[in-house]
Amino acid sequence: MNIREEQEKREHEYMSPYASFSDQSRGRDREEPQCDMRTVYQRDRDRILHCKSFRRLKHKTQVFLAPAGDHYRTRLTHTLEVAQIARSIGRALKLNEDLIEAIALGHDLGHTPFGHAGERTLDKLCPSGFAHYKQSVRVVELLENDGKGLNLTWEVRDGIMNHRTSGKPATLEGNVVRLSDKIAYINHDIDDAIRAGIFAENDIPKIYTSILGNSTKERLNTLINDIIVSSRDKDGIYMSQEIGDAMNSLRQYMFSNLYTNPTAKSEEVKAYKLITELYNYYVANVDALPDNFKQFIDEGEELERVVCDYISGMTDQYCVSKFMEIYVPKSWKG
Description:
Elements: H1 3-14, H2 40-49, H3 52-56, H4 75-92, H5 97-106, H6 115-125, H7 132-147, H8 154-161, H9 172-196, H10 206-212, H11 216-231, H12 241-259, H13 268-284, H14 291-298, H15 303-312, H16 316-327
């Protein structure tokens, strides 16, 4: 018996009967030999961790566009916080932590530069629309690895596709990540908003803080513990009515006071303009696309979708530099 088989055996001895066992995965689109050391979900986690799209998340906006401070979240630090919260819940519920981590690390790979402002822009421009959760799946199925994708298991791709609020993951692990994503961004976005002076801790309505807590630490502890207590030994992932309602109300408060706040979003109109100009330029100048993206067009992908692939993969800085390269006159050097 090799190390992978020993790990698969231990999963059946230790994990909840409702967990997703590695040796019962629905598999990959392309069959490949098993690893002697790692389970299928461990391999998926490693593939995501080492891919280029994951590394680019460190220079993509979470909420604040191009923040001057070093301590504001980026899309990468958000992803790591989601993974940490989800693993804490999964460990307590005896679920498959490797599957949880793979889904969490991959859930935002398809996010655009400039956060949801970039996503809304591409969705408006592209005839077939654009959504980051669909793009994340497209990244792992097609765009990474020179057009071959990462060939991840079905369960990981299902969790990535369904991490949005309205999603319905097929596994408990996917459901843990879905809730952990909301828990993470609500709380770390509050922390960033307070750091930015958008509002203060005392400004958050007491109707929420009296239930969830008066600090990021307290709120995280309340939400995580509630999920664990509500879901232990059950075939679903649940929150109590009181805590769930308070979290959703706090989320709505964040939409009103941060996500649509004129101060926090003052630069977004520039992001809309920048991405729109780049999109129109590349649609009209296909030869300006990198060869690895033109290859997708040659293979039958629609032009507008490939342009979205290219732009959505850009970091904030690279997006700005490409705009300047195309539209800002260069100094004459003689």
